[in-house]
Amino acid sequence: MSIDYWGATYAAIICSVFIAVGAVVSACGANTTQFSLVIAGRILMGFGSMLIESAQLKLYTHWFQGSHLALVIGLDLAWSRVLSVISRATAVPMSRINDWWGWGLWIPAIVTVVNLIVCIAYWAFERRVPAELRPPLGKDARSEEGKLKRAIDFSVLHKLPRFFWLFCGIRKCLAVSGDQTADM
């Protein structure tokens, strides 16, 4: 709900902050050899990781439509799979840099900070775009809500196709018969 109200851009920045701070805290755990710090950093990263994909998809749907949207989502999924393979393949070589396993946490932490910088750069870009082309915010739509409210017009119900009414009737009969069989 907060993504809809404040906008996907702010949600992406907040999520990126959680991910970056969590990655840095986790990497600091490698420096201090405190495994509890590594776990705490991973928990912080989890808070941001839970919502970042929703924010990304909301931004994709604003900027792209139709087959272009499908292409962008497909590229995003493919890129995440490629990065997953690369990160798994390079984890052991990174941990062997200077014979210290902490690089396996610090290099991804640096990447998450770069991601945060990219999110902030996108926010700056979005502020330069004309207001009518920006992704809409829920808080702005709330002021327009009163203007768009209308009473339900029951006179248009006869314009619905017969199939709609047939489907509703069948669903109602199935629901009633389902209730009776549940009682047996």
Summarize the helices and strands and which ones pair or pack.
Blueprint: H1 2-6, H2 8-32, H3 35-63, H4 66-95, H5 103-128, H6 138-148, H7 162-183
Characterise the protein shown here.
- The chain is an all-alpha fold and 184 residues long.
- The protein has 2 domains: 2-140; 156-183.
- The chain contains 7 helices and no strands.
- It has helices at 2-6, 8-32, 35-63, 66-95, 103-128, 138-148, 162-183.
- Helix 2 (8-32) runs antiparallel to helix 3 and helix 4 runs antiparallel to helix 5.
- The longest helix has 30 residues, at 66-95.
- The mean pLDDT is 83.
- Order of helices and strands, N to C? HHHHHHH
What is the gyration radius calculated from CA atoms?
A: 25 Å
The N- to C-terminal Cα distance equals: 42 Å
Strand segment tally: 0
Helix % is over 70%
Morphology call:
elongated
What is the typical, i.e. mean, pLDDT?
83
Number of domains: 2
Largest sheet: none
Relative strand content: under 5%
Q: Count of helical segments?
A: 7
How is this structure best summarized?
This protein is mainly alpha-helical and 184 residues long. The chain contains 7 helices and no strands.
